[in-house]
Specification:
Layout (H helix, E strand, L loop, with lengths): L6 H15 L5 H17 L5 H18 L4 H30 L7 E5 L4 H12 L4 E6 L6 H11 L4 E4 L4 H4 L5 E4 L3 E2 L5 E4 L2 H10 L4 E4 L36 H8 L3 E4 L6 E4 L2 E3 L1 H13 L1
Parallel strand pairs: 1-2, 1-4, 2-3, 4-7, 7-9
Antiparallel strand pairs: 5-6, 6-8, 9-10
Helix pairs in contact: 1-2, 1-3, 1-4, 2-3, 3-4, 4-5
């Protein structure tokens, strides 16, 4: 319900509340309850990518603790670790802004796709540093989330304009860099994000413009998609030339029903990633995932 909380943080917070209330007597039962809750959380949303990242962080922490502690000790340690994670999420965003804001310079024109809390934090920090810049924002259909971003930037005093999603090629020569958020950053260093990110990355690369992804490290996910159709959110009925027997077709409704909301951008289209772990190359993401899951 709190729009300022990202799905991975909300997932961990929900799991902490669950284990505070459950009374498992064995580690197996404890683990099964947590895994079942994670599956229910993922099933409750049509976009489970970033939420899955939070669940994976929680389960990995549980796995570490379960080898050396009793059930009650593990429960208490998980509650403590989960609470610290939720409370520290804001600091992650601040760290991303700290690492990314030096890339924002006076008189730049920036193109931002959709709405991202962490990008808003980065740009707000740049404003506090008295940097003067302009921002184009994609409308970002179908939810028009770019309008929300535009209003927040207007409140900060940043000159901004909203452009049609189809106008990114038209505007590209006026742009100095592109910023996009992330629903998830995959093992290859590629990006899962709001639909339109991939085509924006293709145009940016053709125009030789730097393309930066901005994301907290808890959005690093253990996925390795090879194409758009490897995403967990893919459905076979998307854009599938379904027969439409009605005499008249509501094409606006069809757009919402049959189109994807996310796409995958391969790592070769990303210049750098701004994260709370620092400024990373796409290949650095797999190194960080290995550290977290295998250390």
């Amino acid at each position: 319900e709190d729009a300022s909380i990202s799905p991975p943080v909300a997932a961990v917070g929900s799991l902490v509340k669950l284990i505070e209330l459950q009374h498992a007597t064995t580690m197996l039962e404890f683990t099964m309850i947590a895994r079942s809750a994670c599956e229910k959380l993922k099933a409750a949303t049509s976009n489970s990518i970033s939420l899955s990242a939070g669940c994976d962080v929680f389960l990995q922490q549980m796995s570490r603790l379960s080898h050396t502690q009793t059930v009650d000790e593990c429960r208490r340690a998980l509650i403590r670790a989960g609470t610290e994670f939720v409370q520290g999420a804001g600091k992650c965003r601040e760290s991303v802004a700290e690492f990314g804001s030096p890339f924002v310079r006076d008189e730049q024109t920036i193109l931002v796709h959709s709405y991202s809390r962490v990008i808003m934090g980065l740009l707000a920090r740049a404003v506090k540093q008295n940097k003067r810049f302009r921002v184009y924002l994609t409308e970002s259909r179908p939810d028009q989330s770019g309008l929300r971003a535009a209003e927040e930037l207007r409140q900060l005093g940043v000159p901004c304009e909203v452009i049609l999603d189809a106008a990114v090629g038209y505007i590209m020569e006026k742009v100095d860099m592109i910023l996009v958020g992330a629903e998830g950053v995959v093992e290859s260093g590629g990006l899962i994000n709001k639909i339109g990110t991939y085509q924006l990355a293709i145009i940016a690369k053709a125009a030789k413009k730097p393309f930066y992804a901005v994301a907290e490290s808890f959005k690093f996910v253990r996925l390795y998609p090879l194409s758009q159709y490897d995403l967990p959110t893919y459905r076979s009925d998307m854009l599938s030339f379904r027969e439409k027997p009605a005499a008249t077709v509501d094409w606006q409704a069809e757009l919402l029903k049959s189109n994807p909301t996310l796409d995958y951008t391969p790592p070769e289209f990303l210049t750098l990633l701004f994260t709370d772990l620092g400024v990373l190359t796409p290949s650095g993401v797999s190194d960080e995932l290995i550290k977290f899951y295998l250390d």
